[in-house]
Amino acid sequence: MVLDETRPIYSNIANSSKIVINDRSLNIIPNGPISGIQISIIAEEVVMNSDLNMDIAINKIEGIYEVLIYSIDGNVISKDMPLFFTNKEYDVSSIIIANTNAEEVDIVYDFMPDDFVLNQNHPNPFNPVTNIEFSIKKESYVTLKVMNLLGREINTLVNDITPSGFYSVQWDGKTSSGSFAPSGIYIYQLQSVEGTLSRKMVLMK
Hints:
Blueprint: E1 16-21, E2 25-30, E3 34-42, E4 46-48, E5 55-61, E6 64-70, E7 81-86, E8 91-99, E9 106-111, E10 117-118, E11 130-136, E12 140-148, E13 153-162, E14 165-171, E15 184-192, E16 195-203
Parallel strand pairs: 1-9
Antiparallel strand pairs: 1-2, 2-7, 3-6, 3-8, 4-7, 5-6, 10-11, 11-14, 12-13, 12-15, 15-16
């Protein structure tokens, strides 16, 4: 990939980029300006993001979209944004990303969850710390609460707008006031726009 000498000079040179693979889209999150991307996509249909402000060349051969994203005018991709959208699931067979020095950058892949899931805590039984893992498919306001069997709230572990992703939270066996909860069976409940999920755990001293 060759850059024109008339292109602007950037003081911040990208050396890596995160690729976020969602169900029907793919996002790029570079750590600096990106001048070119070459990507092979296996999909039924691909729609490129019209907000890229880049030149795009597409060639479809036997179900594989060969896509070249570049800019004659020296435009770059420098922030988190989707590259393309699909109507069904897709696969990426190869991707090359170049910075403004025409150097290939490192790629870190980040896969987004397919479902809204609350996993069984571990260890279980526990004393006094346990890990609770969950995944959020749709960004929304999320709460993760610990309650006793009577439904009384013991502590709130998550209470915030939470992006799509995989998460792990610890409960140290303490109440919201900071005192240690007694031994027993507790319910931990995850709630978001996707629904409500609950599981039981055992604090054993």
